[in-house]
Amino acid sequence: MRRLDEAKGWLVALFQDGVVEASEVLCLAESQGFAKRTVERAAKELGVVKRKVGGPGEDRQCWVWSLAAFEGDVAVSGPEPVEILSGLRLEDGSTWGESATELQWSDALAVLARDPQVRRFWIGRTRGYSKTTDTAGFTIAAALGGLIPPGEKGFCVAADRDQAALVSEAVEGFVRRTPELHGVVVVERNAIKFPTVGVTVEVMSSDAPSAWGRRGWWWTVDEISSWSDTPNSHDFYDAVSTSWPKVPGCRVVVISTAGSPSHFSRKLYETAADSPEWRLSDDHGVAPWIDPATIEGERARLSDGTFGRLWENRWTQAEDHLVTEANLRRCVTLGDWPIEPGRGRRYVLGVDLATKFDSSAVCVAHDERRDGERRVVVDDMEVFTPRRGWDVSLAEVERRVEQLAGRYRPAVVSFDPANASLMVENLRARGLRVEEFKFTAASNDKMTNLLHTMLRDGLIDLPDDEALLDELLSVRVVETRQGGLKVDTVPGKHDDQVDALGICAVTLMERPAHRGGSGVSAAGHNLLY
C-alpha cells in the first residue's frame, strides 16, 4: 500500500471520535512515521475540514481538523441521508418517502442514522419487498449524505453479474427519475460514482475472481442466501467479510430473503440474530402492493419449501429438490424395461445434448390416460458419457436417435438445436419429424414446474433405474433472474436425464390427449384410447 493511502486510513481512524487539534494531528502523525507533507496531502484528498475555534486572546484558541461527515454528530452541510432517500423518485412517480411502508422506514432510519447504535444490519424480507431498490436508495443516501467520507469507497456485492446489474439499474432508475441527481450520480458498468463528494461505490458479484484487499466505508450484500454454495463463493464471502474490521467505521447492510438452513449464509444470519453488534430486521409478511390472488397462485404452483423461503422469508430445508424420495418411489412402477413398443401410442424422443463435461441423454416416452388422469410413461433412456479427453460423439447420438425413432413409432424427436443444428437438418432429411425445444427462461420454468407437479402426484411411470433415480433426487430447483424456476445440478452430479425427461413431459402434455383404441398400459393396466 502507498504511504499516502496509509496516511488516509490513519486519518480516518483518528477522526472517528470527531474533532482533533491540528497540532495533535501532526504530532501523532510524526510518531507514526508520516511526513507532514504526506499528511497534508492525505487530508486534502479526504476533504478534511480545518477551522479555528476560540476567540482572539482565549487560551484555547486553536486550529482543529475533522472529516466533513463527522463534524460532531451532524454533517457540515447538506441534507440528512434519510431525507435524500425520502426524495428519490420511484417508477410510479411517487417519492420513496411517500410510498415506503413502516417496515422500510424503520430499516432506513436505523441504517442511515448519523450516530447508529450498531453498524451491522441484516434485513430479511420476502420476495418483491423492494430489497434491491432499497439497497440502491440506501447507497445513494449514504454517499451523498456524508456517511462515506470524501475520497473513500463503498461496495455493493450481489449474487452474480445479473443481480449486480440489477443494483446498478436500480440506481440508474433513481437518477433518471430524480432531477436533483442529474450530474451528481454517474452509473458506470461496474461502479457508481458521486463526483461532487469524491465517492465511488464499486459493484461486484460473488462470481468475480477475487475480493481480497478491498477497504470500504459502505458495504451492501444483496440476496446472499441465493449465492452459489460453492468453495469459490465461500472464499469470496470470506474476503469481503474479513475486510469489514479494517475500517472501524464502516457500515454493512445485508438484505436478503431466507434460504436453506444448510446454506453458508445461515451462519451469518444466526450471528446477526445473536450478536449485539448487529441489528436484525426479519419480516415474514408479503409486500402490501402484491395482489393476494398472486400469492395464492404462487402457493399452488410452488413446493411448500420454495413458497416458504420466497414468500414467507423462512429458512426451510431444501425442498428445492425436484422431488422427495417418498414421492419418487411412488413413481417407480415399471418392471420389464426398456418397454416394448405398443400399438396406439404416440412417442416423443427428448434429447439433451452436451459434448463436454456432461453427458448426452435420449429419453423415449409416451402418455397414457389412467383413472381419469394423464400420465407420462418412460419407455427407454440412453446416456452417452464422454470419456476422459474425448467429447461425446454427436454422430453416435444421431445414429441412435434415428434407430429409436424407427423402433418407437410414430415418434417426434424434440431437442434444443443450439449444440447440433446440423443434426436437426440430417434427421429431417431422413424423414424424421423433429421439433425444436429451446431452453429459455420461460421453457425452463414450465418444464421444472411440470416435472415437480407430476412427480409429486405420481403421474410419471419410471423404471427402477439407479442412475436415473439418483439424478432426479439430486437436482435442485433454483430461481432465475426473471423470477422463474429451473433445474440445476449440485457439484459432482448431472441433470442430462432430467432434462431429456422434461422435454418429453412438456412436449407430450402440451398436446391434446390421444384417443385411439383399446390396449394395455406399460404398467399392465387396461386402457381405453
Output the keywords.
529 residues; alpha/beta; Arc Repressor Mutant, subunit A; Nucleotidyltransferase, domain 5; 8-stranded mixed β-sheet; 7-stranded mixed β-sheet; 22 strands
Write the SSE topology.
Elements lengths: L2 H12 L5 E2 H10 L4 H11 L2 E5 L8 E5 L14 H6 L9 H4 L2 H10 L8 E5 L6 H14 L8 E6 L2 H17 L8 E2 L3 E4 L4 E7 L12 E5 L8 H11 L9 E6 L8 H10 L3 E5 L9 H10 L2 H9 L12 H7 E3 L12 E6 L7 E11 L2 E12 L9 H14 L3 E5 L5 H9 L3 E4 L4 H16 L3 E4 L2 H9 L1 E4 L5 E4 L7 H14 L8 E3 L5 E3 L1
Helix pairs in contact: 1-3, 7-8, 16-18
CA-atom Rg in angstroms? 30 Å
CATH topology name of the largest domain? Rossmann fold
How many distinct beta strands?
A: 22
**What global shape is seen?**
elongated
Secondary-structure class: alpha/beta
Portion of residues within helices: 25-40%
Mean pLDDT: 85
Quaternary structure annotation: single chain
Distance between the termini: 78 Å
CATH class of the largest domain: Alpha Beta
* CATH architecture descriptor text of the largest domain: 3-Layer(aba) Sandwich
Strand content: 15-25%
Describe the main β-sheet briefly. Answer: 8 strands, mixed
